[in-house]
Amino acid sequence: MAKRRRDHEAGYVLDLIDSLLDEPSAREHRFDWLRGDPGKSGRTVRLPVDAYWPDRALVVEVYERQHDEAVAHFDKPDRLTVSGVHRGEQRRLYDERRRTLVPAHGLTLLIVRTSQLTVDARGRLVRDVESDTATLRTLVEGALAAPGRVHENTPT
Asked: Which terms are listed as keywords in the entry (predicted)?
């Protein structure tokens, strides 16, 4: 049986942030101005963000391993996307599009890398709720204190 989104690492992180903010986020929210590259038909799709809190003008993207390193399962290097590149390169292009367009529309973008939280030797989340909540509290408070920007720690 396939795991539901909330069972994945990103869902866990977003659930903790929902709890911290005491309000639910709009998951997989799509803005009309955030679009992918045109397909063969010339049509573009609206790109999702992981979570959006409209009252706080806050967008959160959760970066799992595939955002910072090559992962064949996610990158599909043998298949090209509508952008004419493999999925890993398309992810990088779309991540950069979010970094540029989200603040350009007056929103705060917080990028949370799962590696910033409690992880095991393989880099997978341990789900230490107390420790992870404390880390996320610091990240969210920092982002909300300086709105309209991109907030991220680069990987080490």
From this structure: Endonuclease, Hydrolase, Nuclease
In a domain, 62, yes or no: yes
**HSE on the CB side for 24, CA within 13 Å?**
5
Phi (first) and psi of residue 47, to 5 degrees? -80, 140
- Tell me the β-bridge partners of 60: 51, 110
d(CA 89, CA 110) in angstroms, rounded, equals: 21
The answer as to whether 136 is a domain residue is: yes
State residue 109's pLDDT score.
Answer: 98
pLDDT digits (tens, 9 = 90+) for 58-102: 999 999 865 455 444 444 556 655 666 667 778 888 899 999 999
Selection from 90, 97, 93 nearest residue 75 by Cα: 90
